[in-house]
Amino acid sequence: MLGLPDDIRAFLFDLDGVLTQTATVHAAAWKDTFDAFLRAEAARTGGPFTPFDAVADYDAYVDGRPRLDGTRSFLRSRGVDLPEGTDADPPGARTVHGVSRAKNDTVLRMIREQGVAPYDGSVAYVRRLRALGLPTAVVSSSANCRDVLRAAGIEGFFDVIVDGVVAKREGLPGKPAPDTYLAAARALGVEPAHAAVFEDALAGVASGRAGGFGAVVGVDRTGQAAELRRDGATVVVRDLAELIPDHPEEASA
Q: Tell me, what's a Pfam family for it (predicted)?
């Protein structure tokens, strides 16, 4: 059904990079934030400034992860181990929370300035699912998930939303752990073996594999098809329109 095994009965979508064209905005916001932090660290310690790579570092350390986890992961890759701090830390404070808040402020500003566009192929695919009466969910690490869906005009397409707010409230570990996807499947009343996960992030496809989902669709927006397969994708497409039966291109298993 729609490019996937016939026993798939529920469809769970990541947000940034799968449904909406915001992954590049997040990468730019992380670069802006980390470069400012790394410059300040270089000035403080007298060491060299090596900027954040918005492709390699983004994919390896922050893409698909909760914001605080992304901050910890990247900074530790540079040998920086910050104190945690608290939610009350101001943006840019030398804590995990301070750096993370600076990133959030930056991405919200960029979204306000640039707007949010959905991927046309993803909208077409979700519309087809809705026409067939099939349940859908969004599973995102972002605490801004609902705002982004609303800005893109697609909030009403989904039965369940498990985002960063829900994960924090319910104590769910973020991707690559499978817990947020498993929570969405439970909310839809479907066993993981009968649900499909749609992800563009390596951490996301890893979470789909770890959760035992019946299909894990890797959406290759940046030329990392091999890495998506390596980390858990059972199908890789460049755009979800490829999974619609009358689309001229076929997905590669």
A: Hydrolase
Nearest to 110 by CA among 17, 15, 30: 30
Instruction: Name the one residue in this structure whose structure tokens are 């939303």.
Output: 161
Q: Confidence band (pLDDT; 50, 70, 90) for 233? A: very high
Q: Is 6 a catalytic residue?
A: no
The active-site residue out of 16, 57, 69, 89 is 16
- Cα gap 157→173, rounded to integer Å: 25
pLDDT at residue 85 tops 60: yes
Candidates 14, 63, 200, 231; catalytic one: 14
Does 127 or 1 have the greater pLDDT score? 127
205-232: pLDDT as tens digits: 999 999 999 999 999 998 999 999 999 9
Q: What is the mean pLDDT of the chain?
A: 93
Amino acid 131 reads A
Using DSSP, how many helices (H) and how many strands (E) does the chain show? 10, 6
The single-letter code of the amino acid at 58 is Y
CA-to-CA distance for 5 and 153, rounded, in angstroms?
29
Is 53 marked active-site?
Answer: no
193, 10 in Cβ contact below 8 A? no
DSSP secondary structure code for residue 141 in this structure: S
Distance CA 200, CA 23 (A): 9
Contacts of 76 (CB under 8 A, 6+ apart): none
